[in-house]
Design a protein that fits this description.
The structure is a single chain. The chain has one domain. The chain is about 65% helix and about 0% strand. The chain has helices at about 5-20, 25-45, 50-55. It comes from Buttiauxella ferragutiae ATCC 51602. This is UPF0509 protein YciZ. Pfam families: YciZ. Belongs to the UPF0509 family.
Amino acid sequence: MPTVDPLQLAKRIDTVLDILVGGDHTSAINNLEILKAELLLIANGDEQKESDLKKSPWEI
């Protein structure tokens, strides 16, 4: 079962905060939705495909 890396999670939250400070609320919301979906997959015991983990869906 995959685990959540707290440092990686903190970095991604920090990215969302930076986007919010930059004023791009739409991208920040999209990134939070992506993060939420990934965390729910982990919580449900589902694994992401390795190809999905290599690409970054995040908007910066």
